[in-house]
């Protein structure tokens, strides 16, 4: 099935909810948690049909890139830099991935990139506005 929404674009962090509770829940070390707090992460998404390249640019020049095809297992990296394998699915126009200790969904909502991560009932929501 064709992806319901076009994800391609560059998005800059705008707001998040429940960050501290979430990073505590997934056991992110406090130095990494500090780095990510209110961090103006720019997320760059290149979508070509069901193929995605998902890059996060952190202030200071660090980047994380995950490349995946919807429905196929891919090598991924978590917020904390752990490597793992996941199969990203498309459900109702949302990208859904099961990370080792949380489930992550992404969707385009009103021109914004909305990402929701859930771990044992703790829900972390991050919204980024489109800048390109």
TrEMBL record:
Show the CDD domains listed in the entry: FABP6
Gene Ontology CC terms, in alphabetical order: cytoplasm
The highest taxon in the source lineage is: Eukaryota
Keywords of the record, alphabetical order, are: Cytoplasm, Lipid-binding, Transport
Q: For the Cytosolic fatty-acid binding proteins domain, which residue ranges apply?
A: 9-26
The GO molecular function terms of this record are:
lipid binding
**Family from the record:** Belongs to the calycin superfamily. Fatty-acid binding protein (FABP) family.
Q: What is this protein called?
A: FABP6 protein
Q: Which organism is it from?
A: Rhodinocichla rosea
């Amino acid at each position: 099935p064709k992806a319901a929404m076009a994800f391609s674009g560059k998005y800059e962090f705008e707001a998040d909810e429940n960050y501290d509770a979430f990073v505590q829940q997934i056991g992110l070390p406090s130095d990494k948690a500090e780095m990510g707090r209110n961090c103006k992460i720019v997320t760059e998404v290149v979508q070509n049909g069901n193929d995605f390249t998902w890059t996060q640019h952190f202030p200071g020049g660090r980047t994380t890139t995950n490349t995946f095809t919807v429905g196929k297992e891919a090598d991924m990296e978590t917020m904390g830099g752990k490597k793992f394998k996941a199969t990203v699915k498309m459900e109702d126009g949302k990208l859904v991935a099961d990370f080792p200790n949380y489930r992550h969904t992404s969707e385009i909502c009103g021109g914004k990139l909305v990402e929701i991560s859930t771990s044992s009932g703790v829900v972390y929501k991050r919204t980024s506005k489109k800048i390109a």
